[in-house]
Structure formats: structure tokens, C-alpha cells
Sequence to fold (569 residues):
Amino acid sequence: MAKKGDWVRIHRVVLDAAGRAPSCPEDTAKVPLEMWVKGFLMADAEIGDEVEVETATNRIEHGTLIEVNPYYTHSYGQFVPELVQIDKQLREILFGGDK
Amino acid sequence: MALAKDYASVMGRNNEIMKEAMGLDYNQFESGEMRFDYEGLMAATGYTLEEIQRVQSLTGVGNTPMLELRNLTALARKYAKPGFGATILAKDEASNPSGSFKARRAACAVAHAKKMGYKGVMAATSGNYGAAVASQAAMQGLKCIIVQECFDSKGVGQPEIIEKARKCEAYGAEVVQLTVGPELFYTFLSILEDTGYFNASLYSPYGIAGVETLGYEIAMQCREKYGKDPAMVVCTSAGGGMMTGTARGLMKAGANNTKCVAASIDLTGLHMASDTAFNKKSCTTGHTGFGVPYAVDPDHSDVPRSAARPLRYMERYVTVKQGDVMYITEALANLEGIERGPAGNTALAAAFSLAQELPDTEYIVISETEYTGAGKHVQPQMAFARENGIEIKFGDPNAEDIPGTNLILPKDPSFIKTIDMDLDHMRESFIKKACKKANNYDPCEADLEFLAVETNSSVEFVKAAIAKLK
Fold:
């Protein structure tokens, strides 16, 4: 249950596939244009409910409630072994490694 | 009565919405079938170079350090013939408040919006410009909405773009995120219409005038430190604003012998608006998917006439591969002790190769660096590539690279080699598009002259190009 005033993320289909721009490439034209926005929930609701939010610029947006207290999950990624090989190679070329 | 908000209706109101959102009537600059008064548009900002310097300095923008990349220069010289290998310099634009040179463009646009009495600013951008507008809006006390193209239809977001969203939100902006597609502009227009905010377009004259200080500083700092102008300035090229503004600034400083070179990552074959190709690219900026279309047809942006017209200024346009940029990013951290993002490192990969063409008494400048961080660091970019089925290996990027299929890291630095694009072919393409748009293959003398200036060519060249079309 999300409370009125909670910071949430909502999702909405802005254009269904049929309403998309004529200039869309073939693959993109087959899928809808979707949108995600964050804001303060205007009334108590459950995940999956159609809700309204007030955004950071005080706009009222509507959509499906998908996340309460949304947070970032992007990171520095999995280890990429090639990077330490580059480091080693550069040091050897420029400084002769440990020699 | 509520206005219809379907795609065709909103796009049909484009001109009225833009006029309201920019406080500038672009019609006043139109003078012929093809030509318009570009310098008149630039002058309409009403800001001189000095005034822009003042506006930027109010928010700590500009006057960034020029760093000499000594170890990368030494490395480049190992692969150059004796007496060659220009000193590589980097304009450290990452030290602007929002972490990139885009702060210069945003500072002017937001200051102008404030002066005009707008309550808020908007920009349609998935890149550093969003963060720059958000940062300036915070400093100057305006509201800010950034519209991003961020996800594919499976809801998978480009890590680099998600990081930009985080940065915008950190500055208090509202971020509207969309799936991939050309309707980014439609959504942007629709919200612009509802809010009455200022369109802080990257392509407005304010946005471009803001970059002129960068070119000016490059010339001045190079003269002060080394007693001469740089032989070459390399600009990472996407929308063309960096190239245009930097070249104009260099000219204002009188650096007339400095060669302006545009550089992009070669992503030939990956459609920019394709849902399936969206997450097949490993970095999202400075690539040919934007660089080429904006050079040959600048007026398809979010303003009626773009102030970014790179073909007027570039003397060469070179490409590098994604793997070159990843490699040089790692080299910059390891050999120079500075971690920076991919935007400037596209120019750096190119400069590493171009420096080897120049005598070791010359200087080559990359016009920007950008901040790096989670999502846009070289490691998450390569990890993301691997997650999306892109093969990563060492090899010869120019022989093996296939955008969207693999990412070829140069097997040693000698394999970082720029490839020159055919500028005359791009000029012809520009002329063809201009004729097609005006539906006129027999332009008047004034339009011929305009096309010659637009393509940095001659009336003879334009005539010959049109003759080929008939």
C-alpha cells in the first residue's frame, strides 16, 4: 500500500503502436511509446493502480503505479578483464613494465 | 476546449508552440527559397562574446584548465615517424559545474529564459545537456523538465542515460523518460505547450553562442602557454554545436590557421530510432548516427533553423571505432591519472592518431572532456555490451569492427587510426537535401551562394553538385 505523498514512479503508454509517428522504423512501429515519470502520489493506492502524481515541477501526471521510493540501480558493471590487459600493455609500452 | 494531443495534432502546432517557447520569430530570418540569414539569427541573441563570458562566469562556467597529456603524447610519438607527434592538449570541460561543456550552452539559454520571464525551461536530451540545463535552472531559480529517450520496449535502459537522469534529478529537475523513437520531440512539444516553459534547445542561437567562449579560450590558453595557436582542434561531433561554436570562437580569437576537425564514432548500420538496435550501441553520444544527419541536414532538430551548422566549419571529418574510444579512455586514466567520460574521448582517440600526422613542434587540442561515473564509465559500458551479446575482443578495429555485433579493442595503440569521411560527398548530400526540401533544382544566384557558404565550398561546386541531381 502506498500512501498519499509518497515519492513514486508511474508508467503510461503515450502512443499505442497504431498511433506512432510515420517516420518510425519497422521494429519501433510495432511497439507502443511508453513513458515513466516520478512524483508525489496524490492519493493512497496499490502497485498496479491507475494513479495521479504531482511531479517535481508541480505538473499532474497520470499512469500505473509501478514503484514506491524508486531508486537507481545502475552501477560500475561487471568486471571486464580486457581493461586490466590494456593497463598492463600501456605500462609496458611506455615505461617498460617492471624491467 | 482541450487541445487534441495525438501525434499529428501536436506536431501540426509545432510552429506556434515554438514561437511561444522561444520568444523568437524565426520567419524574420528567412529570405529566399533556401537561404536564411544565419548571422542575423546569431546576432539576434544580442549577446557579444564578452557578455556571454560574463553570464557564464556568474555561475562558474568556463575558464576550464587546458591539460597537457604528456604520457599520451609520448605514446603517440612511439608510433609516429621521427620529428612527428604533436603535443596533445585537452580542454578539461569536465570541470564545469555540471561536468561537461554543455554548461556553457545551458548557462546562456537559461539566463535568457529568466530574462524573458519564463517560469521554467525544457530540453529534449538524453545526454549531458539535460544535466547542464538542470544545473543552471537550479542556480538561476527556474523549474526544469528534461525529456529523455531512455529505454527499449523491454524496459531495458541505457546505463549512460539512466545516469544522466539521476544527475538531472539530483539538480531538482523533473525527468520524463521514454522508450526509443522519433516521438521524443512530440512528447517534448506536448509538455512545452502545457507548461509554457522556455525551449532551451541545444540548437538555439543562445546554445551555440555559449560555445564560442570555448573556442576563444582554447586559442588564448594555447598562445599563453605555448606561444602559438594549435595546429588542429578536434571536436567530438553529434548535433554539431560543439564544432560550430568552437570554430566560431577560434575565428573570433583570430586563430585562422587552426584546422577544425570533427570526430565521431562510426556506428554505420545501427538505426538511431530502432527499438532493437537501441541497446546494441555501447556509448550513446558522439557517433555518426547523429553526427552525419545533423551535418548534412541541420534543420531537422527541435527549432525551425538550427544555429549548429557544422559543415560550414569543419575541414575534416574523421571516424574512430567504439573500441578505440574504450581503449583511449582506459589509457587516459592509466597514463594521465584522469578519469573522464566517452564524449571527449572520441576526440581524444582521433587526436591520438592525428597527432602522428603533425610535427612534434605543433599542438593538437581536444575541445572537451566530460565527467564519468556509474553507468557511463568504460567498465559498465563494456559490461553492458557483453550483456547485450556484443562480442568484445582485441584486434584491428578498422578491419573487424561491426557496430551492434562486436567491440574490437585495438590490439596495441598503433591500431588506433582515424578514417576520413568524404566531406565532398557530405556537401553534395547537403545540397541535395536543400534542393529537395525547397523542391527547386535551379536555385537563384543568392541561394547558390548560400549553399556554398553552408557547405564551405564554392558556387561552382554547388552548381556541379546540382547538375548531378538533374
Notes: The first strand of chain A starts at residue 7 and ends at 15.
